[in-house]
Each structure stands twice: as structure tokens, then as C-alpha cells.
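Exam revision sheet. Question 4 asks you to relate a sequence to its structure. Input first:
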Amino acid sequence: MTGEFLGTLGYKALQFFQYIFIPTFFVMFTWGIITFLIARKNPTRKRKGYLLTVFGGIGILFVLYAPVFGMFYWSSGIDTQSILNASTPINEIIYNIFLAIVEPILLFLTYMGVGYLLLAAKEPTRKRLGLLLIIGAPFTWFCLHYAIEIYTFFSGI
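Answer key, C-alpha cells:
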């Protein structure tokens, strides 16, 4: 009984850890890309953008895959499939709420990118930012709609 309780408590702690740190690292990654693209000739901003992008991406991968690798290689009898199945119901609810919030924002960002591109004149930084928004927002929308399929493809479930 105690081992089962600690197992579910560990799963819930792992879920909580991932719910907090995956969005945090994703915001770091996104902010780093934006900072790197609008840095112009400022080397401090470029370095900050580069570091945020690299460590945000590494952090996302670490938070996603380190618990699974750890349980696969160092534990006996813990099935990684049960970890994924335990979090399925709440993940679908959070995913649908997140999708309903983010879709209008992405549409607004696409139109904002068109505005930036049209009003950029001869400033290359604004042109790059406009192109980033025009290309990046639909790409993000595509990834959001197919995130579950992408995840199952790479995780082998």
C-alpha cells in the first residue's frame, strides 16, 4: 500500500514539475529567439538571446525526457507507459484550454507581422521581425494542432 501511494505521489510530483517547467523553458526559448532577432548590433543582447535559446531548448528536452530515461534505466518494475496513462485525462483538458487561448493570439501575431513588414521601410530589424511573425505564427499553430501526434511519433507510443 505504501509503495503504491508513493508511486502515485511520485507521478503527481513529476506531473507538477513538468507543468511548471515546460512552459517556463518554452517562454525562455521563445524570448531568446525574439531577443536574438531584434538585437541589431548589440552584442550583449545577442549573447543573452543566444543563451536563452540554447538553455531553454536544453531545459525543455531535459524536463521531458530525463524522468523517463531515469525510470527506464535505473528502476525495476516501473512501467513508463503507466506514467503517460496517469496524466492523460488532465492533459487533454489543459491542452484544449491552452488551444482556445492561443489560437486568437497567433492570428493577431500574424496580422501584426504583416503590419511590421509593411511599415518597416528600410529597417532590416523590423523586416526580420515581421517575417518571423508571418512565418512563425502559422508554424506554431500547425505544431499546436499536431502536437499530440508529434509527441507520439517521437516517444514511440
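Marking note for examiners. The chain has a mean pLDDT of 80.
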